[in-house]
Write a structure and sequence with these properties.
Elements: H1 17-36, H2 39-55, H3 57-68, H4 72-92, E1 99-102, E2 109-112, E3 129-133, H5 139-150, E4 158-162, H6 170-174, E5 187-190, H7 196-208, E6 220-224, H8 225-239, E7 271-274, H9 277-284
Parallel strand pairs: 3-4, 5-6, 6-7
Antiparallel strand pairs: 1-2
Helix pairs in contact: 2-4, 2-5, 3-4, 7-8
Length: about 290
């Protein structure tokens, strides 16, 4: 659905257990052939995918905007950001070197050889991939899989499964993992001697990138009492300049939410006063 008005735009398969098992089996079958290729051969394929993503970044950006709500500029930038990973690893693939390590026994030699060892997200290393896309935004990964197939990635090497309902919730996962962050709560601290305009610009950018829906967005703003009134006033002035709407419109600065606000994972900025540095460090860490 389009985030701006909940209009249905695409239909995507809800993968079941059989689909996931089939993807795993396909990756397993493709693994021996893919790992047998030289790093240079795999690198050439990855380089072709990079070229194709760059060539199609306009269309990929439209897909990202349609399913995620990013503005046009952010969406195209994200597509090029994705392409950069394929460019980097296309150059690294031929350089997966082993090593010769001095042995304690002078008549012996220890040699390390790096080899792919199973289904993992490491095409450059010679591994095959089963990728679970986000249930709310499955179409960009599907587009990537199509581009990969076009540029010579063998069948079964890159597999995508999609599911929205048939997926464990974060809470269920948390019960089995001891160290798991369920969302960022990053503090943004401004001291009295800060440059006001730099602080305001940085705060707006940090909070409202993709309408506050990124894991690196600041979620708590601590402003020292001496600069609080001026900064809060300028903050409001800057936010009044925002243009909310369809991300395909180039004048839009803030796009619709993907699926509503969870905690402060959205366009909400709460400013709090503090007096001393020790106080704010303690509050920021709690």
């Amino acid at each position: 659905m389009l985030p701006k008005n909940a209009t249905k735009t695409f239909i995507c398969l809800e993968s079941k257990i059989d689909h996931i098992n089939a993807a795993i089996q396909a990756a397993s079958r493709a693994f021996p052939t893919w790992r047998a290729q030289s790093g240079r051969q795999r690198g050439r394929i990855l380089r072709k995918i990079f070229d194709l993503i760059v060539e199609n970044n306009e269309d990929i950006g439209k897909i990202i905007t349609a399913e995620n709500g990013k503005t046009k500029g952010e969406a195209k930038g994200k597509a090029l950001f994705l392409a950069g990973f394929f460019e980097w690893f296309s150059e690294e693939a031929p350089r997966i070197y082993g090593d010769v390590i001095p042995h304690s026994n002078p008549s012996c030699r220890t040699q390390v050889v790096k080899e792919p060892v199973g289904v993992a997200a490491a095409l450059a290393a010679g591994c095959t991939v089963v990728m679970k896309s986000d249930g709310l935004t499955p179409f960009t990964p599907n587009a990537l899989a199509i581009l990969a197939e076009r540029e010579g990635v063998p069948k079964g090497v890159f597999n995508v499964v999609t599911a929205l309902d048939n997926t464990p919730s974060p809470g269920r996962l948390a019960s089995t993992l001891k160290k798991l962050s369920l969302g960022g709560n990053a503090p943004f601290i401004v001291l009295d001697d800060a440059d006001l305009e730099t602080a305001v610009t940085s705060a707006v950018t940090s909070k409202f990138k993709v309408t506050g829906q990124t894991c690196v967005c600041a979620n708590r703003f601590f402003i020292q009492e001496g600069i609080y009134e001026k900064l809060s006033q300028r903050f409001v002035e800057e936010m009044k300049k925002s243009q909310v709407g369809d991300g395909q419109n180039t004048v839009v600065t803030h796009d619709p939410l993907t699926n509503g606000v969870e905690k402060t994972f959205g366009p909400l900025a709460a400013l709090s006063k503090f007096t001393t540095k020790d106080e704010v460090v303690d509050r920021a860490n709690n």
